[in-house]
Amino acid sequence: DVQLVESGGGSVQPGGSLRLACAVSGAFDRTDCLAWFRHAPGKEREGVEAVCPNIGPFYSDSVKGRFTLSLDNAKNTAYLQMNRLKPEDTSLYFCAADYRGPRWSDQTRYSTWGQGTQVTVSS
Fold it and tell me: Is 42 exposed, middle or buried (0-12, 13-18, 19+ CB in 10 A)?
């Protein structure tokens, strides 16, 4: 089994930055895709960004140019660098794996999820 543990959430003012981390452990297949989703109250869970070996990365239009997903294979950790944060980025952020295709932003295509980390952007 694969386990995912997110960290790095917090409160920040608009325009600020945060870096989220997703620690991956267990039998992770390095040909698998890793993705970040977010879920705000009253809204559907939204795909933020995903990266697959030799494919992507894929970004939501709402974060393109501001967020960057990177992988540190030595640390088995995926990072989501979030810059120029906006109040509408406030959400619970999750990482996801065990992807079955074909659409990266479809949450039903991932079978392993972390517990989430809260990001709050307000002045």
Answer: exposed
- Asked if 68 and 81 touch (Cβ cutoff 8 Å), the reply is yes
Query: Do 122 and 11 form a contact (C-beta atoms < 8 A)?
Result: yes
83 close to 66: Cβ distance less than 8 angstroms: yes
18 token code pair: 């945060």
DSSP bridge partners of 95: 36
As a whole number of angstroms, the distance between CA 72 and CA 50 comes to 14
pLDDT in tens, 101-119: 888 999 999 999 999 999 9
Q: What is the mean pLDDT of the chain?
A: 93
Task: Determine contact, residues 17/83, Cβ cutoff 8 Å.
Answer: yes
Planar angle of CA 7, 8, 9, nearest 5 degrees: 100
Q: Which of 78, 82, 51, 79 is nearest to 65 (CA)?
A: 82
The burial class, CB within 10 Å (0-12 / 13-18 / 19+), for 27 is exposed
Q: CA–CA separation, 6 vs 82, rounded Å?
A: 14
